[in-house]
Amino acid sequence: MTTAMEMCSTVEYDAAEAMFNRGAYLRKLRELEAQDEAERQQEAAVDQSTVDCDTLHYESQYLNAGQQYYDDYKHVNYKFIDFGYINSDDNMNNKENSPQEEKKEEAGFQELPLMIEQDRSLKTKGGFVWDAGYILAEHVIHEQDEWKQLQHGKHGKPVRMVELGAGTGITGLMVASGMPESVHMSLTDLPSLMPLLQRNLERNQSSAGGRLQATAFPLAWGTNVTGNYDVILGADVVAGIYDPIKLAKTISDLCHEKTLVYLAVNNRLAEIIATFEGAMGKLFEHVEHRAPVSRNKNPNVSIFVATGKKQCSQ
């Protein structure tokens, strides 16, 4: 027969074991909770990487990854291209040594981030980012001492720039993002490109908190246009599918006597370029080719520059 003392001892033993088991159970719950949290974080990272598969990070995945090819269609499968913060430093070599996050934290920095959407459904070159557009933008930023002389008034109001055949807006938006206090950019293209161009403009204006000075509107070359722009930009606009004579006339119509014209041209289109140069030579005092200053080393791209609009061309 079990005595009362033995029963009490048994009860005390069972209670202690229960408390021990409860502690082990709670520890196990905490371990499972921590494991669940780790799995949730891993799933979130996977989800984010899936999203990022649709985005090319231009600097890390292309510029600093060897640039092994320069095919114009190399990036067309990406929906977005993230260019990070656009550096206004005119020393391209220094740019490679400036981490993006450090630039964000610098006191008084003026550069803005740039994200460009591409659209394959447009079935036109204008829906993609081309090397010439990026090269031209970096070159124009490098040449800032040349065109900043055209700033207006004693307080240095922004230089008025226009990009012809802007497409995605890569060139104009990149220059305006790198130097938002120095530039007011007008982005132009055919009506069919305007929805994409407007989306890229609005997206980057939103991320810039209102500091990006730019507008977009349709413009067809060869029509009766007038303007008074300080700088005219165009990347891959001298091509076989476009009329080089109409392009030259439009450029002249948008100029004043001190306007600077910077175009990125594909050196393989020698015959078309020669026709365009002949037309520009009749409208401007000085035309020349310059070696581009850019971290993108595409050997087929050069910079065409025109200055000194002739009075007879007005």
From TrEMBL:
The keyword Transferase applies. Coiled coil: none annotated. InterPro entries: Methyltransf_16, SAM-dependent_MTases_sf. Keywords: Methyltransferase, Transferase. This is EEF1A lysine methyltransferase 3. GO terms for molecular function: methyltransferase activity. GO terms for biological process: methylation. Pfam families: Methyltransf_16. SUPFAM superfamilies: S-adenosyl-L-methionine-dependent methyltransferases.
